[in-house]
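Researcher: Going back to the complex we discussed earlier. I've cleaned up the inputs and rechecked each line, so this should be the final set. Can you rerun the prediction on the complete assembly and write out the structure?
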Amino acid sequence: MKNNHKAVSYNKWGYIFLIPFVVVYVIFQLIPLFTTIYNSFFENFMSGLKQVGPNFVGFQNYAKLFSEGDIWVYLQNTMIMWILGFVPQIAVSLLLGAWFSDTMLRLRGQRFFKTVIYLPNLIMASAFSMLFFALFSDGGPVNTILVSMGILKAPYRFFSHVWSTRALVAFMNFLMWFGNTTILLMAGMLGIDTSLFESAEVDGATSTQVFFRITLPLLRPILVYVMITSLIGGLQMFDVPQILTNGTGDPMRSSMTLIMYLNKHLFNKNFGMAGALSVILFIVTGILSLIVFRFSGNREKTR
Amino acid sequence: MLTRTTWMLSFPAMKKLRLTTDVVVTETIADLGITEDELANQFQYTKDIVTDSEGNLRGLSWQGCPGVLIYNRDAALDVWGTEDPEQVQTMVASWDTFNKSAEELAAKGYKVVSTVNDTYRVYSDNATTPWVIDGKLNIDDNIMKWVEDSKALVDAGYTDTFELWSDDWAKGFFPDGKVFCYFGPAWLINFSMHADEEGSIANLGRWGAVEGPQGFSWGGTWIAAAKGTDNKALVADIMRKLTIDETIMTDIVKADNDFVNNKPAMEAAADDDSFAFDVLGGQNPIGMFVAGADKIDRSAMGDYDQGCTEEFQNAMKNYFDGNATLDEALDLFKKGVSEKYPELTVE
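Model: Rerun complete. Updated structure for the full complex:
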């Protein structure tokens, strides 16, 4: 009996320590999640200072989003810019991670380089895009240098062409996030038993073989984590293209992401349409994350 | 409490004051104890803009914002051998001559304007129909004329498609920017054209002012009393000092080269050499401003101007840059408007 009593009192402390998290989670995550879904069924916006609604309209907001069809274009834009940035990001991060964690190389100044590659992430995304906007503007320093070196005859209008705009967005996302990914992957690589590398070496394996046969397979759980978090981050891409294109997503909205489209509906506080879009985004994110999870070698676990 | 509203950059002021009586956020001027007789010297258009649908005046402005064509004297000297305002006016007297002059300017390496958006206000201010008629989107003929003329200028390489207020736009404030002219009211010349910066054209006093192809107005600042204020006497006092007191108003003109909302005082200043603008190399443009202010008619102004103007300029940039046909750009404009104002029909 006495033992039982003690166990209960320990449980009590467990719950008490959980309270801060649960309270914050409920207020800032769970309630907004449900109110977003709730809001998506209403017509509710401001015209100037005049409030329209809220009127219950059922699935009308969803119907409007799907019938216009723009949402798929913006989803496509988002994915294109994410992939353009993610592929070099994961490649560079794997390479850097492998070098940093390789005990045979014994790189000097590791701490310095780890700090430097992480630095772009510390700058505010908006400040970073302002900087790039100034650098690549029609009369900006990049154009001035290219013209004076004779590489270009006339300034290249980076923000008036589809692929140069998309590439700049992707490049900025790559710069901002490859440091973070490197550190995550390196942590995964350092967690691999060094005796495996040593025995591979004794067996005469080349460093390429070691990387593809030992490092990569054992790194899989971390890779999946990086893929999913980056995918979710990519789908929510907003600040960089928003500032870089002044909110227009030009040329012809080819660099407009889903969240930029959502932001367009917030000009008039259109919580109905914005809510519906958020719910769709929530579902799309969920499906894509599941796909990544399934195809990344976690079949054994899910079975 | 005071509400300071300005639409120099966009038009938030008009949105906040809201001319319909559905939502009232400001006290009427009559409620503050200011009589119509006291306001007799003000330009009529400054009062029309802030008069609500029931005829109540709801704000007062100290500024008059008729616009002029502000030209680079050195460019005029270089291309036509004269910097005299009367001669230069003949080169830009109508849009046809203006566009023809653009070719001559381009031959000497000058852009006629920094960007097509510079001329937008001139065309849009002369529009005779509002953006929205009975809940339906409407594009005025004069605004379509802007599209047509601008496309021709961009295609010929006579100007660019930068946004207003961007760094690229502002390059022409300096001699190296090689821009022939900007369009703007008094506040643009003094506040926005880097007059305090050494080496700028304004600092050298090398701008000149002429009427240009069409008269227009741009911006303005109104003082309004927030609904329910407990400082009515104080607000009325500030309004009287800034928008009625002739001494204070003429001091503003002398100190800051601005143009104020007091017709008799400005008419007198037009012939007074002590009011000459340094930024214009000693030219006194006040007579031109008075004539312009008398002609301003903002009856086509409406609640949707800010959003429609932004969307229109953004959409047309795609057309000018060659990324879309005119129809595609117009569709993009309609899409943007329907996102901002779901209650409107756009087709």
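Model: Worth noting: The first strand of chain A starts at residue 42 and ends at 47.
Researcher: Good, that matches what I expected from the previous run.
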